[in-house]
Amino acid sequence: MPVPSEPALIVIQGLTKRFGAFTAVDKVSFEVPRGEVLGFLGPNGAGKSTTMRMLAGFMTPTVGSASICGHDVQTDSVAARRCLGFLPEGAPNYPEMTVTAFLTFAARVRGYVGAELSRRVAHALHLTTLESVRLQPIETLSKGFKRRVGLAQALLHDPAVLVLDEPTDGLDPNQKHEVRNLITQMAPTKAIVISTHILEEVDAVCTRAIIIAEGRVVADDKPDALKKRHPSGRLEDVFHQLTQPATAPRQAA
Fold it and tell me: Which of 59, 78, 154, 174 has its CB 3.0 to 4.6 Å from that of 53, i.e. a possible disulfide?
């Protein structure tokens, strides 16, 4: 459960991103406290990944702000990133490196050395069930394994905030189950945002869901409450109803 007396670990206020005349993200605001798993939902092109990149400090907003653990991601970016584990869409890596070599490199970048570095890498391999491929070059791995390598690097430093863009993309059903269990286990001590268009992900792990359409928030509630917005009681139907371009309502974000 969220800790009510603690300031939210993620705070987004009026986040907006324009590309010329096109507004990709329009006045998005929300907070995520420790203990909450937020599903950030929307159709392709709705602005999910752009919002996540701005939150992670990889893209500068046109207007608005975002902070992680009290650190503004633009003006105090190094401190913010120390608190953040980020799995971007199509997570970049060095394909010629083995899994262990890549994670060792990532751990060194984060300042770990010696026994602590080895412990961090081993723990990340264990959490993401990568021990069996730890000596393989990343380029030889399946899409699902590559995705788990990206997740492992996001978990190396045990961050207070996790921002995961399509974390189960390319994973088979068993791998999805493992990753969802891992997210559930970590949830009490972290603030987690999962950007996805896979609605079953919300039912599986999320305690709250935000639906975004055409760059703006159109719903923000617990999954069970969202389901009650449609006679069928199905999140899929609510999603369809709220994200149709001609009918999507625009509420203040």
Answer: 59
- Model pLDDT, residue 103: 97
What single-letter amino acid sits at 162?
A: L
**What CATH superfamily is the domain 1-83+191-253?**
P-loop containing nucleotide triphosphate hydrolases (3.40.50.300)
Q: Percentage helix, strand, coil, to 5, in the chain?
A: 40, 25, 35
CA–CA dist 5, 3 (Å, integer): 6
| 100 — pLDDT class (breaks 50, 70, 90) | very high
Side-chain-side CA neighbours of 194 within 13 Å: the count stands at 29
CA 162, CA 183: separation in Å to the nearest integer?
Answer: 10
For the CA atoms of 77, 83, 87, 93, what is the dihedral angle to 10 degrees?
70
Give residue for tokens 């603030």: 191
The SS3 assignment for 207 reads coil
Residue range 169-180, pLDDT digits in tens: 888 898 889 999
**What span, in angstroms and rounded, lies between the C-alpha atoms of 79 and 32?**
18
- The DSSP H or E segment spanning 41 is strand 37-41
Cα separation of 32 and 92, whole Å?
26
* 89 pLDDT higher than 60: yes
* DSSP structure class, residue 133: G
Q: Are strands 37-41 and 208-213 parallel, antiparallel or unpaired?
A: parallel
Q: What is the mean pLDDT of residues 192-221?
A: 92
Residue pair 144/171 in contact by the 8 Å Cβ criterion: yes
Domain ranges within the chain, ordered by starting residue: 1-83+191-253
